[in-house]
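User: Hello, can you help with two protein structures?

Assistant: Certainly.
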Amino acid sequence: MDKDPILRIKDLKVSFQSGKKFVPAVDGISFDLRDGEILGIVGESGSGKSVTSLATMGLIPSPPGKIENGEIIFEGRDLKNISEKEWRKIRGNQISMIFQEPMTSLNPLFTIGNQLMEAIKLHTDLTKIQIKQRCIELLKLVGIPRAEGILKEYPHQLSGGMRQRVMIAMAMACNPKVLIADEPTTALDVTIQAQILALMKDLNQKTNTSIILITHDLGVVAEICERVIVMYSGQIVEQGDVRTILKNPQHPYTIGLLKSVPDLRGKKERLYSIPGTVPTPGSIHKGCRFAARCSEVLSQCYEETPQLYKTEKDGHEVRCFLHTLKGSDKHVGVTS
């Protein structure tokens, strides 16, 4: 019998105030994060990936944002309505986050040691000497040389890759059960990207930390994730096992994303790109949100909103009417 997931998001809807109305940025998404797994969330900018991660960390700014619906269940407890005081005990301790740009996440006025020590002091009862020793262990764990010297340095004295390693060390300071990494390799060059991904995979194996990796890069997902969720305009359009989705993508958007990945084996005059842009949140009130950009669009797509259909493959779900054309025997049910 499968264990309960460590984190379960159920029918989450997050909206932001625009004028007198609230506009949904994340609209009814549901997924599970299993113990010790690496789950990828993929999509273009504006698809709702980062808002999902901020909601999971209890960091939606209110106003203008609010969680209108849904549950965020961590170890059997719904975090949606807990107080800020309770959130402080969980955030950075049991659920941690690595932000996209380390230079804006690290305080330029404090040394690396000060910032790392503060994270440990907040959630543990260790002595000053033990905290310093823990900081040195963490910096070594994330592959930073001369760890003791780095503690005395300021963020501007480190390279982008080193700063990102410090952010990972801070996120891992209290051995969290869940680590959310929001585009952790975006601002880094390819060599450092590979090192950071290898480091995250290594930490996952050594500490059994469950990781949610948010990215727009399917190459990154193929490298370290076990399952993947594809988001578009605040909804999940496809989710399932990484190998299944990369070998046999079912949603036209996922197919478009995969076609957009450059192939070094053959020269092309022009790289493929999906026509159009992600719609503004709240601008589409009926029909499929991808219809205006879809090469396989049907008249039905403009009138009705497709559900998330389960395919024959275990756990593979896709939000597309094309599956109803393949015969109803292809479906084992419909989820929200």
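That covers the first. Now for the second protein you mentioned:
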Amino acid sequence: MRRIFGSVRSRATLGATLVVAVALVAAGAAVLLSLRSNLMEQAGNEAQRTAQNVVAQLAAGKPYDQLDLDDESPVQVVDANGTLVAASDELERISGTATDAVKPQPQSGGTGTGAGADADDDDDDSGRGEAGEIGEGTEFSDGSATIDGESADYRFAAVPVEAGDRGRLTVYAGGSLDAEQSAVNTALTVMLIGFPLLLGVVAGVTWLVTRRALRPVEGIRGEMAAITASEDLARRVPVPGTHDEVARLALTTNETLAALQTSVERQRRFVADASHELRSPIASLRTQLEVGVAHPELLDLDGAVEDTVRLQGLAADLLLLARLDAGERPGDARFDLGALAREQAEGRAEVTVEARSAQVAGSRGQVGRVLTNLLDNAARHARSAVTLTVRREGEWVVAAVADDGDGVAEADRERIFERFVRLDEARSRDDGGAGLGLAIARDVAVRHGGTLTVGRAPAGGALFELRLPQAQ
């Protein structure tokens, strides 16, 4: 059961079916109530017309035994004391009115005659009352009656009338509810048969539509499973031509795969380049130590120390890059970038410093490493002078390092920030470094919410600008 309703298609079908079922039940109940109300109103109107016909006769002073009563509908005439004074001839049983009597009671005096009055009384006025007037305020009630052996439910209308010397009378007349019951039962039967069929159609259509809509998702899932099994990140999931959420999901998945492929390839290149860069100083150091063991007098201590320092610096660069790639947060400590710039330039005779005080937030050590890398890079390419300035520009603090060297060609101004990239491939590794300094500098700048760009200096060399947001 859990597996059946664990799919999106099953849950969508069940949800749509339940929603339609609730809507159908609510609509069906409303239809039945409206239908019953209308038919009840029609039965009441019919009863009221029958009662008003009798009331008009009573108001005109017509005797009880001469009233024209509808033999197909139950009719009662009741006086102010609740006594039945006239009724339909075929009435055998009644309920829902003021009295359940079906046979009129004999009347005395001049109030009228009963149903069994002597025929000789028709020649005088003892059976006729004075003319009266129709009262106001019809009341309705529900009940049942038996006429000529047939029982049925009725809607009764009670209409009062002032009948002159006969006092206040009330006429009860019934309108049959057979049509109402028949119509309601028919509608209920149609609903009980039609609703399940309609729900079946809704469930089937929803199942098919959802299946068709989710078919691309199954294709994406299958391709992702194949990519996971083959570890081939060059593969891509199929993109449907529907231009809907599923298509956007496929596009986003392919973008993620592309980013993952780039990251993996970058990681592989990084490992390969790091291994290559580490191999050279390690091999040189090993050679010098082996020579020193065999011939102590030939041991180049200065060269061994230089290779060790270079190896130590390369290991530190690789460790910092690994931390940056892992998403290490730079922190939010405040420090003075101007003071840090003067500190990093101290001891460098070729560097001129013009640094104003400006507060930034982040890792002081990492930003100091950026300035060191920029100054080292400028010193390698400058002819005679390097300038380090720190200034404010609106909400930014800008640290600029300029040299008077040959500069960087416009086509290479983005490539120099890639890892292990050195434009001068002919120079020695000892002079040129491993090609990680500028890559580290840009990564640190981005982690601090800033930028690092290169352009042309006024003296013709390279101009590196580090922009960091001012500390609030």
